[in-house]
């Protein structure tokens, strides 16, 4: 479990807060201000529950069944039935970090004082997070409208002491047993509480937040890989000059070009042919245009971060408590999140595509500028990195398919009451595969470029790129030589990319990148 405690208050959580709880296991606590807001909204719900006039979600059915008035003696059953029936997920378990993010973000909405939840219910959700108890949520079940209903219902079910969870050690067990072992008591849901627990876009938002975090790191790592490719392919860095980038003042492009300049600074390889105008006039697009592609991807990530920041400041529920009223609304529709999730899958695919093209240039004798075919030790006997590029190509092909947007689809549900949905959960699920794919494609480019830089010796790489070569070699990834079992070296490099170790090694050597 993490050492810091994330305070959930009346106000937006930061991206860093979400990652701390979701990935690092940080415990959670509701502030006094949040509890006061929760109590105030609850009083409004209880007043409406006691009234004779029907109020949606409090004394009526749900969705297409909202026309039925539910008598007071059946309202607790109404909330239990809602959660049980909506916990209808299917397929593989969703990752622990996704479920923790989903729970935290639902708790953040509860803390705004607009849902009408009771404080003991909100406190139990915080306690589950702090105890590391993670409900089992299934892959399929959310349409991204009326919120992530099925995923959130599986979490609400655990608060009732029902369904399955995994404890802090990852052991699968009944929720009742896990709560008892942690000294926690299940809640008996009261009026509106079941609805308040499940009617949010928290799952897709949690996955968006983590994708933004990962892509910010991966795109800087892709700048490092591009620099290594330019260097080892005897390319030119003249095109990355600041005055050229300023002619097209796209923010991300300028930052990416600055990174390429910094990573290539002091390169003996670059210096060896800097004045050789015959050797290189213009590089291929995959080298020369790296800042334009990486930069556009970075700008898209920051647009997604703007959308995420607005969502983190939102109270997504229906109906919501506003003043002394409970009012219906459509804020549970996931379109704003779904669109940027799809957008990020597009840029991840394109960043991977240009990385694969840079890698492929290393392997072709006609284009790699005096390196051996496929960087093989004894070409013909050895195949070198031939099939590593096949692996890249297979991943990039999959990522292009994953870039097809989910948010343009809609299947009506709930007897046509919910006749247009966002499919944002699906967009988030495929983006997670895309982000993983990008990390693997960039890793293979780094692995290949490092081998090429070793083959350029005695020419010395730049301090920044040399730091990556040194990291790989010290991590058990060998340099040039006869063919060997390559998959473990790829997986080691993937781990170094995904953990941020590659980026950290470069920044330790030359300072922080943009």
From TrEMBL:
One of its GO terms (biological process) is L-histidine catabolic process. It is found in: Cytoplasm. Its main location: cytoplasm. Contains an active site 4-methylidene-imidazol-5-one (MIO), which is formed autocatalytically by cyclization and dehydration of residues Cys-Ser-Gly. Belongs to the PAL/histidase family. NCBIfam families: hutH, PRK09367.1. This is Histidine ammonia-lyase. It comes from Nocardioides islandensis. The lineage of its organism: Bacteria, Bacillati, Actinomycetota, Actinomycetes, Propionibacteriales.
């Amino acid at each position: 479990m993490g050492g810091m405690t994330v305070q959930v208050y009346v106000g937006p959580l930061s991206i860093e807060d979400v990652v701390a709880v979701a990935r690092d296991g940080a415990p959670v606590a509701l502030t006094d201000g949040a509890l006061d807001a929760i109590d105030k909204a609850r009083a409004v719900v209880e007043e409406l529950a006691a009234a004779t006039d029907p109020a949606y979600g409090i004394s009526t059915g749900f969705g297409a069944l909202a026309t039925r008035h539910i008598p007071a003696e059946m309202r607790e059953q109404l909330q239990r039935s809602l959660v049980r029936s909506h916990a209808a997920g299917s397929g593989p378990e969703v990752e622990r970090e996704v479920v923790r993010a989903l729970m935290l973000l639902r708790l953040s909405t509860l803390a705004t004082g607009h849902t009408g939840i009771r404080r003991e219910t909100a406190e139990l959700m915080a306690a589950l997070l702090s105890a590391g108890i993670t409900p089992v949520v299934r892959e399929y079940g959310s349409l991204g409208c009326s919120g992530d209903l099925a995923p959130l219902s599986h979490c609400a079910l655990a608060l009732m002491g029902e369904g399955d969870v995994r404890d802090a050690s990852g052991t699968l067990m009944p929720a009742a047993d896990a709560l008892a072992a942690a000294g926690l008591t299940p809640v008996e849901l009261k009026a509106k509480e079941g609805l308040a627990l499940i009617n949010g876009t928290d799952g897709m938002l949690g996955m968006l937040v983590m994708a933004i975090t990962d892509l910010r790191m991966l795109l800087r790592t892709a700048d490092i890989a591009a620099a290594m490719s330019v260097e080892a392919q005897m390319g030119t860095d003249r095109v990355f000059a600041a005055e050229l980038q300023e002619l097209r003042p796209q923010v991300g492009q300028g930052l990416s070009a600055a990174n390429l300049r910094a990573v290539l600074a002091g390169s003996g390889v670059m210096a060896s042919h800097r004045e050789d105008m015959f050797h290189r006039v213009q590089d291929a697009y995959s080298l020369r245009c790296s800042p334009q592609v990486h930069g556009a991807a970075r700008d898209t990530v920051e647009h997604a971060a703007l959308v995420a920041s607005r969502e983190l400041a939102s109270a997504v529920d229906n109906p919501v408590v506003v003043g002394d009223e409970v009012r219906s609304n459509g804020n549970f529709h996931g379109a704003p999140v779904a669109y940027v999730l799809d957008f990020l899958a597009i840029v991840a695919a394109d960043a991977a595509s240009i990385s694969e093209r840079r890698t492929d240039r290393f392997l072709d004798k006609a284009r790699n500028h005096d390196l051996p075919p496929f960087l093989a030790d004894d070409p013909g006997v050895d195949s070198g990195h031939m099939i590593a590029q096949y692996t890249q190509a297979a991943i990039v092909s999959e990522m292009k398919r994953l870039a097809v947007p989910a948010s343009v689809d809609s299947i009506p549900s709930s007897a046509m009451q919910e006749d247009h949905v966002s499919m944002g959960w699906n967009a988030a699920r495929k983006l997670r595969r895309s982000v993983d794919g990008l990390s693997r494609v960039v890793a293979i480019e780094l692995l290949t470029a490092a081998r090429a830089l070793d083959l350029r010796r005695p020419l010395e790489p730049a301090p920044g790129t040399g730091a990556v070569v040194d990291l790989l070699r010290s991590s058990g990834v060998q340099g040039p030589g006869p063919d060997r079992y390559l998959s473990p070296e790829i997986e080691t490099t993937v781990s170094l990319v995904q953990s941020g170790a590659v980026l950290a090694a470069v920044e330790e050597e030359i300072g922080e990148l943009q």
